[in-house]
Amino acid sequence: xxxxxxxxxxxxxxxxxxxxxxxxxxxxxxxxxxxxxxxxxxxxxxxxxxxxxxxxxxxxxxxxxxxxxxxxxxxxxxxxxxxxxxxxxxxxxxxxxxxxxxxxxxxxxxxxxxxxxxxxxxxxxxxxxxxxxxxxxxxxxxxxxxxxxxxxxxxxxxxxxxxxxxxxxxxxxxxxxxxxxxxxxxxxxxxxxxxxxxxxxxxxxxxxxxxxxxxxxxxxxxxxxxxxxxxxxxxxxxxxxxxxxxxxxxxxxxxxxxxxxxxxxxxxxxxxxxxxxxxxxxxxxxxxxxxxxxxxxxxxxxxxxxxxxxxxxxxxxxxxxxxxxxxxxxxxxxxxxxxxxxxxxxxxxxxxxxxxxxxxxxxxxxxxxxxxxxxxxxxxxxxxxxxxxxxxxxxxxxxxxxxxxxxxxxxxxxxxxxxxxxxxxxxxxxxxxxxxxxxxxxxxxxxxxxxxxxxxxxxxxxxxxxxxxxxxxxxxxxxxxxxxxxxxxxxxxxxxxxxxxxxxxxxxxxxxxxxxxxxxxxxxxxxxxxx
Length: 531
Fold this sequence. Notes:
With about 525 residues, the protein is an alpha+beta fold. It has helices spanning about 1-50, 55-70, 75-95, 100-115, 120-135, 140-170, 180-200, 205-220, 220-300, 305-365, 380-395, 410-415, 420-435, 465-475, 505-520, and strands spanning about 400-405, 440-445, 450-455, 480, 485, 490-495, 525. The protein contains 15 helices and seven strands.
């Protein structure tokens, strides 16, 4: 009887041990789920930081973030890791391919210049170095390539002007251009000055660009203008190369980080599968031992035989439980080690990505801002107008645009210099912002022209604020070279009123209204009355 009680007590203890194992397993699974959730959050933040680098990469990263929000089995998203890793490798090659079309333009301009007679050996060497230095692709195509192409076109026009002057005059280019080409040279120089006031560089490049701009303002010969173009293009090529290296370095680090993530996850999955197989074997052995124990209790005819068999089976069960506990502990420690390693790597990469994202945001902000007046530039205007236009189409809200132009601005540059002209632009830009509402979008469209977008405002409603702005600008006490002068602006405005209206058609109507203001003597506001 005592022996039966002992066997029962041992079975109770065994049941408690089994319950402890089950609870331990649940705890381990909870830890595993928590760690996987943490990993998913890190991956989501990392993928969000990489947004905007490539359309296909964005698509895959968006898909990865969507899958991670569902908290799936890691095995289901492992193929996505492979695809993203491959896309990151391909991104470096895409950056190189995107500049090939521009290289043809560079080589074409370089070939044209090399055929020009009258260039010195130093200039030819500089031109050859410039063309060879433009071999590498750029990681900031949207920022630099349009500017580079425009400068190359300007470069070729300078050459064509020089050839025309030389052929018509029948003599070599001198320090002073002929009177017939002075107007063309001044126009080209003015265009280059305006172009340099729009672009924004950092560090030593900014100082170099400012020095070139000052030289252009003081005047130059055709050959000097040619040299300035070469200096500017050289600075752009250098900036392109630096941006490319920075982007390639970040992509390489990102690829390594995702490779590490993939490796750790793959190893964890492999180890988890192996551990599950081993634990299944232990569980089967444990169940078999319990079954044998139960059968022995039922079949035993003597107490001594029962004691021996119970002791033997209980020993097997205890060994199986200890083995199972050790496997759970080892698995948890290994998983914890892998996740800590992964978390550390992701944390480092997250900081890198945040830094790079901040840099990209700053570059995008600068690309949408006029460097001289700090107003939004033409690109920013086009983006904002497209947004307001879609809102007008969808909701039928009122929308009006106005074009403002500084009267006789060329006289200011000619009589008082470009520094005075720059100051005039800055002061008027500031006054326009102050005179109009915060909801009105003011930008520098180019040269001495400004454009204002009036959301949720009818054409008749803009008359008063535009008149106020016009009067305030005329009251500004400008003083150049100890001479007090008054500066005025002319304004034309047009509204979106018909379903057939487009951004281009309404802008053209506002521009025509501006010309009417000029024809009426300037310093007036003219509204387009088309219905």
